[in-house]
Amino acid sequence: MGRIAVIGAGMGAMAAAARLAVAGHRVVVYERTETYGGAVRRFERDGFAFDTGPGLLPVPAVYRDLFVKTGKRPLEECVELVQVDPSAGHVFADGTRVSLPNASRAGVLTALDEALGADAGARWGDFLVRASEAWDRSRRPLLEEPLWPNWAVLADREPYPSVPHKKLLRTRRAGTLAEVGAWELRDPRLRALLESHALAYGLDPRVTPASAAVLPYMEHAFGTWYVRGGIRELARAVYERCLERRVEFRFTTSVERIVEKDGRVVGVELSEGSPGAPGTGEAGTGEAGGLGGTGGGLFAEADFVVAGVAPGILDGLVPGAALRGADEVPPQPGGASRLTVLLALRGARPAGVAHRTVVHTVDRDGELDRLFGGRPGVPAAPTVVVSRPDDPALVPDAGHEAVTLTVTVPSGAQVAEADVERVLDAAERALPGLRDRLLWHEVRTPADIAEATGAEGGAVPAPALAAADGRLLHPSNSTRATGLFAAGGWAHPGGGLPHAGMSGALVAGLIVEGPEFQGSQ
């Protein structure tokens, strides 16, 4: 039985902790904040409750597998999973509206034909066929297996089988998601539908590779799911599964340094004033007390260390060490963040409204330039995701409604009240009379995300994607420091709830089975 120190209590880190505890290891999680979940947080006020991180769960099979592998009670006995139907509503720039059924190919194509005109469904259906090929080609290396040592193959190879496009005697193939939309889908509303999946992860569709077609395909193939009580309930269930497996948690405890000896990690040094560390005692002297060079903080021995933190933080915990070689995937720079506006509304939630509605920008180019150009800031006409869960647990009574508005913004963006007003203006296209119903609102900015996760500027990691010279791959779960592994959204296979959960599975496999581990079966 080994001793394992886990830094951070995000979803990927907790998934690794539970799996490692089942394998017989003693696992202690050190979390600098007062709670678990990373970005999966909740805000409560006056009987209203809101998710302040992800609001829906794609690919629930990742967490079903976690619960099957770590205990007797399956996921569905620990949380109530609800398939969201319709999957999403869309309000396009020209005022056209469409509601897309959940996980129903025929229903989606019919809805598109009726809303956008004949052939719209056929074009989207043909796109989904090609997207499924991209998924089949990239699913294992980009989700279920440790990052290949020859990762350059993934960086150079585009898995999406784009359609040849002839123009001015030249034949070209779409290389970016925007080109897929313009050349293969052709309708600006279908293009907006496609690009919204990239924008939700803070990706610029103009430069994001065509391989990002897997993002709408995942939603189409596996459906969209909600957890009763909010996604925070999923974090609670994972935390409680860790406790059942005797994982120990040390909250409000900061790790100052990962300690190495002879090229291998041997433990972690905690900041002075931390509540304590296992095996060290009140004075920090236990069996590890004889190890020098810990700078006066508490020292906790560990045979392995799992870091579920942003890359800038991880590099700072191992000063002077080269965690990545020049031939390895480097940590990805901070990307976009999110602005979230929480609305407490008087009046009941109307029957039949979509759980999620995407209100598309009326100025696509202006929005993208503002998000990814030289003048970063909150777009003047942002795309807004309106979340209206049908969940009594989120409201004080049936005469009120809790609504969440989410906007992609640059990391580190400063948010003014005028920005919030523009978000409310856009949301009224899907929620008429919003201001008349508004009791109060709360705003969560990139600074709040940075406080919760430690990521610089409140950046939110995107899932790993193939092609684009490896720009959207994430660093391997193993590092050059023997015994040190990385989990969570900033490591392979990247951001998003299913990807974070898979990172925990990959790290556990690499520790339990060693470098010969080939991935989830």
Note down, in words, how this protein is organized:
By secondary structure, this protein is α+β, with helices and mostly antiparallel strands. 32% of the residues lie in helices and 20% in strands. It has a seven-stranded mixed β-sheet with strand order 8-7-18-19-20-17-21, with helices on both faces. Strands 12-2-1-16-22 form a five-stranded parallel β-sheet, covered by helices on one side. It has a three-stranded antiparallel β-sheet with strand order 5-11-6. The protein is globular. The two termini are 24 Å apart. The model is unreliable at 277-294 (pLDDT under 50).
What is this entry, summarized?
This protein is of the alpha+beta class and 521 residues long. It has helices spanning 11-22, 61-70, 75-78, 105-116, 120-144, 152-156, 177-185, 188-199, 214-222, 232-244, 311-317, 364-372, 417-427, 434-437, 446-453, 497-513, and strands spanning 3-7, 26-30, 42-45, 48-51, 57-58, 81-83, 88-91, 97-100, 165-167, 170-172, 224-227, 248-250, 255-261, 264-270, 298-301, 304-307, 336-346, 356-359, 384-387, 400-410, 438-444, 484-486.
